[in-house]
Design a protein that fits this description.
Layout (H helix, E strand, L loop, with lengths): L11 H16 L6 H8 L2 H10 L2 H18 L2 H22 L11 H26 L3 H21 L10 H37 L10 H4 L5 H19 L2 H29 L6 H15 L1 H16 L18
Helix pairs in contact: 1-2, 1-3, 1-4, 3-4, 3-5, 3-8, 4-5, 5-6, 6-7, 6-8, 6-11, 7-8, 8-11, 10-11, 11-13, 12-13
Length: about 325
């Protein structure tokens, strides 16, 4: 598929406002706390809105404004990280979302979701690499992080919880530290999807969305190459265990984690699709989402299995992938 984008003149006012908002949201990460964390992870949102609601060049100009602000208030490294890991990926994904081919069809939602997964894996790998280099390597960085977990775990287990005699708190802390890269990919993927969805809805409400909003339960169909990449990631984990390669294990595990999230999202789309005509659909979906909030990992793993199976053999009714303009019936 050959992509060609039309770079029309930017809207300077929108670019300035979007760039300022994105930069301030990104810089909020330095303040700590939950609110600052959420603001920092939604820094791509104004850039996506600018690119989707106006023009790609408006989003790019907003990125440059934001990068200049970050450079002024921090340093060159912070600005480079913002531009390469936040701004340009956000605008690129927004450009793909509104791309229309010569035959009149828009970029498939499944392929867009795959790109979101790849962006999340790449940016998280880069962040882990930067973090490791600043602490003398991945092993040293992971060990330091594990030591930071120890006081938190001591407080938890001091409240009444007890570990088996064969397991020490240091072992639990080390396991948590080793899992950080994988959970980081999962969170990054989900947050990027949330940014894209919120941007599309915001632009749709404003009446500036060029593309009709897709019927997501039928539109989310991952390309087949995701199955191949997932298999290669699993093979990488097996090989890393045989040759004792921490770097291969971490990188392969991050790929598997990222692709698993994509399968989980497709699994949720399957659920929304197959239950569309059920009279108790709303209650069922509410129960499932509450289960995800409470149990977190296990329902997502089940959804990932469903999504994986749907990628092999479609579990949904065969119907044309239509697009709607109203945010209902999903």
């Amino acid at each position: 598929m050959v992509l060609a984008f039309s770079f029309r003149l930017p809207h300077w006012g929108i670019s300035i406002v979007a760039g300022l908002t994105a930069a301030l949201a990104f810089l909020a990460a330095g303040n700590g706390g939950l609110i600052s964390f959420l603001l920092a992870n939604f820094a791509p949102l104004p850039l996506m809105i600018a690119a989707m609601g106006w023009t790609v060049s408006t989003g790019l100009l907003a990125s440059l404004f934001a990068g200049l602000i970050v450079f002024t208030l921090t340093d060159g490294q912070g600005a480079v990280e913002f531009m390469s890991l936040v701004a340009f990926p956000a605008v690129g994904l927004a450009a793909l979302a509104q791309h229309k081919s010569k035959n009149g069809t828009y970029y498939p939602i499944g392929r867009l979701l795959a790109w979101i997964g790849w962006v999340a894996v790449f940016t998280t790998m880069t962040e882990i690499a930067i973090w490791s280099s600043e602490h003398g390597g991945y092993s040293a960085a992971s060990g330091e992080l594990a030591q930071n977990f120890v006081p938190i775990l001591q407080d938890i287990f001091a409240s009444g919880l007890k570990l088996p005699n064969s397991i020490e708190i240091d072992d639990v802390a080390a396991a948590f530290a080793q899992a950080v890269p994988f959970f980081s990919v999962i969170i990054s993927t989900l947050l990027l999807v949330a940014n894209m969805w919120c941007a599309a809805r915001a632009v749709q409400v404003s009446g500036r969305l060029v593309r009709p909003f897709p019927l997501l339960p039928e539109a989310v169909r991952l390309p087949r190459h995701i199955l191949v990449i997932f298999g290669l990631g699993c093979a990488g984990l097996l090989i890393a265990g045989q040759i004792q390669s921490p770097s291969l294990e971490v990188s392969s595990g991050m790929i598997v984690a990222g692709m698993s999230v994509l399968f989980a999202l497709q699994g949720m789309a399957v659920l929304h699709s197959v239950t569309r005509n059920l009279p108790f659909r709303g209650l069922l979906l509410t129960f499932i989402y509450c289960g995800i909030i409470v149990l977190s990992l296990w329902p997502l793993m089940i959804a990932a299995v469903v999504g994986f199976a749907d990628s092999l053999v479609s579990l949904r009714r065969v119907r044309p992938v239509t697009e709607n303009s109203q945010p209902k019936g999903e």
